Amino acid sequence: MKDYHVFSMDSVGGKVTDHGVALDIEDVSWAGRQMWAPDAAYNDGIYYLYFPVKDKEDIFRIGVATSQSPTGPFLPKDQPMSNSYSIDPAVFKDSDGSYYMYLGGIRGGQLQNWQNEEFDATGTVPSGNEIALLPKVAKLRADMLEFDGPLRDVQILDENGKLLLAGDNDRRFFEAAWVHKFNDKYYFSYSTGDTHYIAYATGDSPYGPFTYRGVILNPVIGWTNHHSIVEHKGQWYIFYHDSSLSGGKTNLRNIKVTELTHNPDGTIETIDAYVKK
Could you report the per-residue pLDDT of 96-107, keeping only the tens digit for each? Predict the structure, then answer.
């Protein structure tokens, strides 16, 4: 992408307003090309837009831009976040007011190039019985502009407490991290990428480890998926995208939203986007 727009609704399912360009790549002095999926957060009167974009050396970094309005325009900082890399930043606010950022994406997202905390252009994606690449997490500093410590691995475990393997394509992490909290449990959800599921795992800490629990959203029209999960007026919703308006023949995507249900046992009811209840 070359810019970001902000869309809003007065109510779920209501009229959608496009508020225009919130941030353009031309406004980011250190950026080279390719803005990818961002996330936003709010703290103490300031809105923060976190965005991945390749720098002038073609390496993905995470930038921060701020505004006093949720619709922008957002003013970017003149440098990316220190020690940031890869894609798909997602910011979670915990019950105690602490903020955490989750990030990472394999293949085009370059996570495989950071296995030793330094960029290695020859880095490869593990396969078969090798341990799958793990997403990253760091607590955010009080000013929301930098990490408050190093990025850490987010461990995703199977039912036996073992790390998921790279060949476990239906369950292992690919991209699109998200975290929400329900009944004092942390839910880490993500895209499996080339198998097109939005899967989830649960844990007792925002740092994990998280144990795989199942699928939130079955594959949609279009190559991949990306989502966010929020509560509004007592009801939980999942926002996601597919390519139904373009017939699935292009990467042009449209925004979708539907209700999400937590079962009494803490699992999440699997959603099929094209089957009416």
Answer: 999 999 999 999
